[in-house]
Amino acid sequence: MDIWKEIKESFKEGSVITRLIYVNLAVFLVFRLLQVVFFLSGKPFHLLSPFMLPASPGEWLRQPWSLLTYMFLHFDFLHILFNLLMLYWFGRIFLDYYTPRQLLGLYLLGGLAGGVLYMLAYNILPVFSGMVTSTYLLGASASVIAILLAGAFRDPGREIHLFLIGRVALKYLALFLIVSYILGISASNPGGNLAHLGGALAGWLFVSGSRRGRDLARPFYLAAEWLARLFPSLFRPFLHPRKQVRIIHRQPPRNDHDYNRQRAADQQELNRILDKIGTEGYDSLTTSEKETLFRHGK
């Protein structure tokens, strides 16, 4: 069995969620394996620092790429497990309303918003003045929270099933998370909670913008696609869309009556979708309704 070939095929054919999960896992495994090598050689392991986001502006200027790399970097197993499970569960909810490109763009936007809020707070608020030079941020939490909260802001009444709790509306989950992040600022992980709030803000801004016809994720997924063209061997496999398999359903010949009846039903469904767009907007359409609209638009 060629496991590596299967992994590459799964990555190539997978959704944007699958690819984000694979990238985060790959980075995690590389650094953990390197840490084992350094441990066995008796040397200190300092390779994480250049890729973590420092709170100090001076140090960040020496490694500006860390504002991007930190959101793909994990070192604790439970940290990455929780983040990737959240990305999988709530990324699928997000894709019921938005496109894969927007999910990728919001992942980047949420991570940047979380990183910027974290740096601003540590350099403006007096309580953090003694911690600036020794504080670093890593993990996809801000990015994942942006996707989670975007789904909650988009459809607050949608219910999910939580283990040991039961069915809960997304709006209550969002409220609980935001309150817990605010309260957590004074606890053991103030930087992480500040980043979470930055991600939550990005999710809210994204949904608010989409309701006004603005796609705040667009500059970020376009930048990612520009990188794919600039460094195709590195980024194009990550961004290249899946090839769509065309399935042809062979049907027995239909008489004129059956054909006209089916055509009238299709037109009636199209009219219903157009009426829904007129009253509730394009974002209110389900995935199936969007596919129907696209098919009629060909």
Brief overview:
This protein has two domains: 237 residues, Up-down Bundle (Rhomboid-like fold), CATH 1.20.1540; 42 residues.
Give me some keywords for this one.
298 residues, mainly alpha, Rhomboid-like fold, 2 domains, two-stranded antiparallel ribbon, 4% strand, globular
Give an overview of the whole structure.
With 298 residues, this protein is mainly α. The chain has 2 domains: 3-239, Rhomboid-like (Rhomboid-like fold), CATH 1.20.1540; 256-297. 66% of the residues lie in helices and 4% in strands. The protein contains 13 helices and 4 strands. It has helices spanning 3-13, 16-41, 57-62, 66-69, 77-94, 100-124, 141-154, 170-184, 190-211, 218-230, 232-239, 256-280, 287-297; strands at 53-54, 136-137, 159-162, 166-169. The protein has a two-stranded antiparallel sheet. Strands 3-4 form a two-stranded antiparallel ribbon. Strand 3 (159-162) and strand 4 (166-169) form a beta hairpin. Helix 8 packs antiparallel against helix 9 (190-211). The radius of gyration is 23 Å and the shape is globular. The model is unreliable at 241-249 (pLDDT under 50).
